[in-house]
Structure formats: structure tokens, C-alpha cells
Amino acid sequence: MQPRNMSMSGVVDLAAVKAAGEAKAKAEQARAEAARHGGPAAVPPSALVIDVDEAGFERDVLQRSAEVPVVLDFWAEWCEPCKQLGPLLERLAVEYGGRFLLAKIDVDANQMLMQQFGIQGIPAVFAVVAGQALPLFQGAVPEGQIRETLDQLIQVGEERFGLTGLTVDAGAEGAEPADRQPAGPYDALLEAAASALDAGDLAGAVQAYKNVLADDPEHPEAKLGLAQAELLGRVQGMDPQTVRKNAADNPADVAAQIAAADLDLVGGHVQDAFGRLVETVRRTFGDDRDAARLRLLELFEVIGPEDPRVIAGRQALARVLF
């Protein structure tokens, strides 16, 4: 079941908010004390993923959120999508090296927490940053989009709250080797994708790029190529005049704004596309907000992460989300 509204407004009670403030003050005091004694101790990678229950929520989540963003994974043993998402989040927690802490909450054993967060379907993923609860996403989301969301969360934690994360003992058992190289090479697949694009075979190009990403999910050329091919596929057959009129006449229609943003980007109006979707995210909630946000992340991929317009767009998105 999809939630009607993933907004946290009115969900966490005032007692929890007060406890969060007190927890933040205590954690800041503890960090200052640790700094006077040589800084916080390093933790092993295994400590980056924890199981949390109602009794330990204040200690393990609210207090810890004053030093590192805490990502909450609400799951259950009977939930099949949870079995896909959970291991992925655990792997990312280790890979991100202490920039966020993953707290897993079994909803069957912690019904009160589930009710406090207004959860109507799982898997559901939230974050707590400096005592503030934030909805992230629901369902088995693709890894690339999860990474985008985590990057924004970490950026907000650093810029707005000064959260520098946890120090991880790289030599501890289970740490990922620093010199691990992605699999490859992919020259033949990338050449096939480029040839398919040149021939107008967008479906073939998409599949070729997906074949690369299935083996190396973060391959930059394949991510960029896939985003471009999918964008071209979406705008194929669109009547630009009709799409733009529909968006202008129906500012609350999220699908219309998304379609117009795709056309904006293809037409070279990058900042217009980003601005349209940021504004759509700002004034929507629940599934509509998720749809606009995810399309914006896809358009970021089309332009590339180092482009100044993408950097500005990420900052604008972070402001309206957090």
C-alpha cells in the first residue's frame, strides 16, 4: 500500500522533538569532550549498520543523529522488497565509510515507531539529522537514485548542521579494500550502445548501457549514456507545443511539469528544466513529490555531476527537501 502523504508534519510528537533537542546537546557535549581527549574513537565497518528498537531509539538514533545522519530502514521478515533493499543499504553504509549510519527497524516488533512515522507501506526509508525526521523514499528504489538521495542527505548534514560523520577503522575486518577496481572492460558494449544511438535504436542503446551497469552500477560513461538515451526515448513523439501548453495551463499537474522539463532539457534550457522540477518538488507531497524528485535526479545524470548547473540544482533541491 502506498502512503497518501510521506510528509513528516505532525507525525513525530512534541516529546520526541524535545528529546531530540536534549539528545543533540548531549551528543555535542560528548563530541567536545572526546575532541579534548584526542578525538572520537574509530568504529569498525560492522558498527555502521545497527538494529534499533523502541527502547533504544533515543540513544541509538536521536543522540547519534547529532554526529552523523541516521538512515532508518523500516522492514519486516515477510516483505520481499525489503530483502532486496536491505542488503543494498547495508552495502552502501559500509561503502560510504561512516558518512551515514544505517538503523534497521523491524516494524512487526516496533509498532509504535511505525505509527509515529506514519508508515503505511514497507520498505520505507527515513533519515534523522540533528534530531529532525525526514522522509527519503519508499519501496525498492534503484541504486543510482538511492545514492543521489544519500549524497543530498550528507550534504545537508554537513552544510546545515556540521555533521562530519563517524571515523571508520579501515583496517578492521570487513573493511573494503581501498584499491578495489570495478569489473571491465566494457569497450564493446559501449561501442554497441553508441552505434545504436547513431542508428536511432534507442531501445538497443538503453539495453547496452544497462548491460554495463548491471556489472558496474557506477560506471560514469554508462550512467550518462543511459540517462541520455532514456530522455530521448521519452521525448520521441511529443508535440512540444501541446506539452508546453498543458504545463502552462495545469501547474499542479506533476506529469505535465515532468514532460515539459524533459523538453526543456532536450532543447538546451537546462536551468529552466531544473527550476521547473525543483518548484514542483517544493509544492507537492507524497508520490507526486517523489515522481518530480526522481525525474530531476535523472536529468542531473544527463548533464553530469560536475556541471555547475547540476551543483546549483542539487543545492536548490536540498533546500526544498530539508
Helices and strands in order:
Blueprint: H1 14-36, E1 49-51, H2 57-63, E2 70-75, H3 80-95, E3 101-106, H4 111-116, E4 124-129, E5 132-138, H5 143-161, H6 187-198, H7 202-215, H8 220-235, H9 240-249, H10 254-266, H11 270-282, H12 286-303, H13 308-321
Parallel strand pairs: 1-3, 2-3
Antiparallel strand pairs: 2-4, 4-5
Helix pairs in contact: 1-2, 5-13, 6-7, 6-8, 7-8, 8-10, 8-12, 9-10, 10-11, 10-12, 11-12, 11-13
What does this structure look like?
The structure is a single chain. The protein is 56% helix and 9% strand. With 322 residues, it is α/β, with parallel strands linked by helices. Strand 4 and strand 5 form a beta hairpin. Helix 8 packs across helix 12 (286-303) and helix 9 crosses helix 10. The longest helix has 23 residues, at 14-36. The chain starts with 13 loop residues before the first helix and ends with a helix.
